[in-house]
Amino acid sequence: MNRVFIATDAWAPQINGVVRTLASLTDELRRRGDVVRIVAPQDFRTFACPTYPEIRLALAHARRLSAEIEAFAPTAIHIATEGPIGLAARRAALRAGLPFTTSFHTRFPEYLRQRAPVPESLTYALLRRFHAPAAACLVPTEAMRRELAGRGFSNLVTWTRGVDRALFRPAEPIGLDLPGPVFLTVSRIAPEKNLEAFLDLDLPGSKLVVGDGPLLPELMRRYPKVHFAGAQTGEALARYYASGDVFVFPSKTDTFGIVLIEALACGLPVAAYPQPGPLDVIAGTGAGRIDADLRRACLDALSLDPAAALARSQAYSWEACADIFTAASRASLAGGGRTPRSGVLQPAHG
What we know:
This protein is an alpha/beta fold. The protein is 39% helix and 17% strand. It folds into two domains: 3-162 and 318-334, Glycogen Phosphorylase B (Rossmann fold), CATH 3.40.50.2000; 182-313, 3-Layer(aba) Sandwich (Rossmann fold). The strands form three sheets. It has a six-stranded parallel β-sheet with strand order 2-1-5-6-7-8, with helices on both faces. Helix 1 (17-31) links the parallel strand 1 (3-7) and strand 2. The longest helix has 17 residues, at 318-334. The model is unreliable at 337-350 (pLDDT under 50).
């Protein structure tokens, strides 16, 4: 039995890929008999994130995290985010001389650059310093691993994602009565998601957007012909996927995009730009189309066989995600706090 301590600035009620990954990982680890302690914003006083009030930032400090770590006595420490909780946990682990792993989920340099005149090179330098002491920095795709290695990051391990195929599967569509074909996206409605690139396209049929976020009121005003369904979860979300003909992924800043494999598991071909997540998930599989011309990708995806999308989704599971996470944690302990080499760890079994 492992005792896993996870420090994260992203947790429910936030709805995003980081929370989905950590929650699914936690469920799988606990299913295996591991004890998992999540330290999240709910454990602290918080304040609203500037420009994004829906996200609460914690007033965390290293002394509190040191006490939490000592009381839990973990066999593995994972620092999932680079926010206040992640910084405090990093400081506490370094002071105690404890090995830890980290993960790179979000392109903060690109996100920040869209909101403020901060050079991406500066933010990447700060992130490189944050992750440098980690035994392993877990990244979601091989393309992302190569990109970060080129930026000077070290001890990088490719860490896959999964999908709950009991939930996300071909299902009865929502009765929306929209003219077909239906081009669907599921996303946080925020500037970094590049949704206008999809909404501005001249496409036949209808556009359907599922999600919530700070740009939702503005986009609803600007695109009155688009059907905005708001945030959806669980079975309702699965049925919205089933209501589409093509899943459109316009983001150029996501490091993976769990929605990609949720869509595939529902039998929905994907249209996307040539970015790390889509390139790793669908390139060369027949499950979608990747093109710098997103409209062409959308139209080409209409002719694809949904069976290819379903087949591609089988490559992803939360079991494999947990295997790689556990292998990275074990390697950090065996190596005295450093993984033997960068690359892809083989999943640990047993």
